[in-house]
Design a protein that fits this description.
CATH class of one domain: Mainly Alpha
Strand content: 5-15%
Structural class: mainly alpha
Number of strands: 2
Mean pLDDT: 91
Helix content: over 70%
Strand order of the largest sheet: 1-2
Shape: rod-shaped
Number of helices: 2
Order of helices and strands: HEEH
Radius of gyration: 21 Å
Low-confidence stretches: none
Length: 104
C-alpha cells in the first residue's frame, strides 16, 4: 500500500469512527431513557406505553420486561460499537505510524 493509499484509508477510518461515535451516543441516550423509565415504573401505580402518537395503558410487568429487554439490546449494541471503535483506533495508530515513518 502506497503512502497516498494509506492516507486515504486513514481518512475513511476517521469517517467510520465518527459514525460509530454518533451511533454510540444515540444508543447511550436511549439507554438513559430506558433506565429512567424503569426507575419511574418502579414507583408508579399505573403504567402507560407510547405507541406512535398515543399513550396506551399497559401492564406494569409486561412494560418492565420490555424495557429490560430493550436495555439489554442497547448494552450489547454499545459493547459491539466499543469493540469496533477499539479495533479502528488500533489500526488507525498503525497506519499513522507507518505514514510518519515513510515521511522521514
Amino acid at each position: 500500500m502506497t503512502g497516498e493509499d494509506k492516507l486515504k484509508h486513514i481518512q475513511l477510518m476517521e469517517q467510520n469512527m465518527q459514525m460509530l461515535m454518533q451511533q454510540k451516543q444515540q444508543f447511550q441516550s436511549q439507554m438513559v431513557e430506558a433506565e429512567s423509565a424503569l426507575n419511574e415504573l418502579g414507583s408508579s401505580q399505573e403504567s402507560y406505553k407510547i405507541i406512535g402518537n398515543i399513550m396506551v395503558r399497559s401492564q406494569k410487568e409486561r412494560l418492565e420486561k420490555e424495557l429490560k429487554e430493550k436495555k439489554e439490546i442497547l448494552e450489547l449494541r454499545i459493547s459491539t460499537l466499543e469493540k469496533q471503535e477499539k479495533s479502528i483506533k488500533s489500526r488507525f495508530k498503525e497506519l499513522q505510524s507507518e505514514v510518519m515513518k515513510e515521511m522521514k
